[in-house]
Design goal:
Blueprint (H helix, E strand, L loop, with lengths): L2 E8 L2 E8 L4 E5 L10 H7 L4 E5 L17 H15 L5 E5 L1 H12 L7 E4 L6 H11 L10 H12 L22 H14 L3 H10 L13 E5 L17 E4 L4 H12 L22 E7 L2 E8 L8 E4 L10 H7 L5 E4 L17 H15 L4 E6 L1 H12 L4 E7 L6 H7 L14 H13 L22 H11 L6 H10 L2 H6 L5 E6 L8 H7 L4 E5 L3 H13 L2
Parallel strand pairs: 3-4, 3-5, 5-6, 6-7, 7-8, 11-12, 11-13, 13-14, 14-15, 15-16
Antiparallel strand pairs: 1-2, 2-4, 9-10, 10-12
Helix pairs in contact: 1-8, 2-3, 5-6, 9-18, 10-11, 13-14
Length: 557
């Protein structure tokens, strides 16, 4: 089944969800601290008979937090009702796992006319003592550390919640009845924790405060409490009253999804959902949506009226994503329409079917985004590897480019390109002990200290003030880690690409800028050497200072 991803504007918050299939609506709600990604298998199974919506619940994945200091499960249920209203969905069955199960049941309780059935996969049932213990010991804060050691802690904290339940009670009595997840599964979970940040405790803690089985006498619609062997809540089945509709599902995930679908078919929702709307603008921030490029989806950020004046299109550095440019987009967007995107295989954009990574591939995506948005001409800004993207884009469609701005381009002499391309990026494929995350962290950290980063000698020490704040590095690692299979190929393509030679042949007006501590700021002189007529702006590191330099470059275009 084809699963598509979407953003939705609900009041003053952004909601992210995936959609699959056709027919009556069913809503899937994930466990904490995950996202809708973890529900892909049941969503595809349900999609054979339903329009299956899987939401990133507020504060997880790509969905904003609820605007409350301490939201309860009741608030999450109300938030779901608001999202369904914005989607034009009158009625939907709900399916939830753990925290998502609490929301699913609470939605059925609070909105019986909008919910024909709730189905749970492990409804949280805790004694008062157990709930208090979870709230005090289970939800430890995420505190970025200078050496990246918090990433290893996150790795084993997420892994061990599948080894012990609860994860912090590491004795035989609390050993989980399930296999340890593989490295890819665990990697996804760590990335989801990084997406939520320390705010993961907000939504997670609500599940431990919920009334649990106390809601049963108040339910007015059918609720099937499903439990699977191997799940932490399976042991609670004996605590349900005899009147409760319980069903033990198969241990195998696919067989369980098929059995759950059979339950959902007993009480389908009325009507068929309309097509998904685009997210609408929110004041002071970019608007995110997906556009179709080839067989995949590309995430796009827009701020301002891109048809009222030629926009500035930002090609981000890769590996990375446009999320790291949100502050810059906001700073520019007060008076300049801006488009930014995640190139294929990075951030939230699907990889190409062949997995190709090159400036030409990224440039093709840039023009596909512009074509979809109806943009005929634009100014192009490329940062680091993104500079190669916009140079390749200008070479492919010269007449569509009004000006080029290269921010700290990776402009290397031929010898450096030949010597460095193959060794620039370490292998960051997920491994059992999470050490790939430390390799990613310390490569990025050392890039701020030496150039090239692996030459840890005083002769290669960078002269710029390093930006090594753990919080800043964690934001970058979060985006780098989203698609680790693209990490090394993108770096190799960016380092090996002959940007100086390509840049020299372009007829366009070029501006060159670099902030004080940019990782490739020292490459600016190589770009100036091939375009001596270029306007050069050096600036500070803040988004406001970078935006001022970009405005100055555009003013001269």
């Amino acid at each position: 089944m084809k699963v598509t991803r979407h953003f939705l504007t609900v009041g003053n918050r952004r909601v992210h969800y995936t959609r699959c299939g056709e027919g009556p609506a069913v809503v899937l709600l994930h466990a904490s601290p995950c996202s809708a990604k973890v529900l892909r298998l049941p969503q595809e199974v349900f999609g054979a008979h339903f329009t299956a919506f899987a939401f990133d619940t507020p504060g997880f994945g790509l969905s904003d937090l609820l605007p409350l200091e301490r939201p309860e499960i009741e608030d999450f249920a109300d938030g779901l009702a608001e999202a369904l209203t914005a989607l034009g969905v009158e009625q939907a069955a709900t399916y939830g796992r753990h925290t998502g199960a609490s929301i699913a049941v609470e939605f059925a309780l609070r909105y019986p006319d909008r919910c024909p059935l709730a189905l749970t996969d492990g409804f949280p049932v805790f004694s008062v003592k157990a709930a208090e213990e979870r709230l005090s010991r289970y939800l430890l804060p995420i505190v970025p550390q200078w050496d990246g050691s918090h990433l290893v802690w996150l790795w084993y904290r997420y892994r061990d919640q599948h080894v012990f339940w609860p994860w912090h009670n590491q004795t035989l009595a609390f050993r989980a009845d399930t296999d340890v997840p593989d490295a890819e599964f665990n990697h996804r979970g760590v990335v989801e924790l990084l997406e939520a940040g320390d705010g993961y405790r907000i939504g997670y803690s609500a599940a431990f405060r919920h009334r649990g089985l106390e809601v049963l006498p108040e339910l007015r619609v059918p609720v099937c409490f499903g439990n699977r062997p191997g799940d932490s809540q399976h042991r609670t089945m004996s605590q349900y009253p005899a009147s409760a509709w319980q069903q033990e599902m198969p241990r195998d995930p696919l067989a369980a999804a098929v059995a759950e679908r059979a339950v959902l078919l007993r009480h389908p929702a009325r009507g068929t959902p309309p097509a998904s709307p685009l997210a609408t603008p929110l004041a002071g921030r970019s608007t995110t949506n997906y556009v179709q490029v080839g067989d995949g989806q590309v995430l796009v950020r827009v701020i301002g009226d891109v048809h009222g004046a030629p926009p500035l299109v930002i090609a981000p550095h890769v590996p990375g994503s446009s999320a790291l440019y949100e502050d810059l987009i906001r700073a520019l967007g007060t008076d300049i329409p801006v488009i930014a995107f995640d190139p294929p295989g990075h951030g939230e954009s699907d990889p190409r079917g062949d997995g190709a990574q090159s400036p030409e591939v990224w440039a093709q995506a840039l023009w596909a985004v512009c074509d979809t948005l109806g943009v005929k001409q634009a100014h192009l800004l490329g940062h680091n590897a993104g500079a190669a993207t916009v140079v390749a884009a200008a070479a492919a469609r010269s007449g569509s480019v009004l000006s080029l701005i290269l921010e700290a381009p990776i402009a290397l002499p031929e010898r450096a390109r030949n010597d460095w391309a193959a060794r620039w990026a370490p292998d960051v494929a997920p491994v059992w002990d999470g050490s790939h995350l430390l390799r990613m962290w310390h490569m990025r950290r050392d890039m701020g200290l030496w150039f090239p980063w692996w030459d840890r000698t005083i002769g290669a020490a960078r002269k710029a003030e390093p930006r090594l704040e753990p919080e800043r590095l964690q934001e970058e690692i979060r985006e780098l880690a989203k698609q680790p299979s693209s990490f090394a190929p993108a770096w190799q393509a960016a380092i090996a690409w002959p940007l100086p030679e390509k840049l020299a042949r372009l007829p366009h007006r070029v501006a060159l800028i670099a902030s004080e501590s940019d990782l490739f700021g020292q490459c600016l002189d190589q770009a100036v050497a091939v375009r001596p007529e270029a306007v050069v702006h050096r600036c500070g590191d803040s988004a406001a200072e970078r935006a001022a330099a970009i405005r100055a470059a555009l003013a001269g275009a």
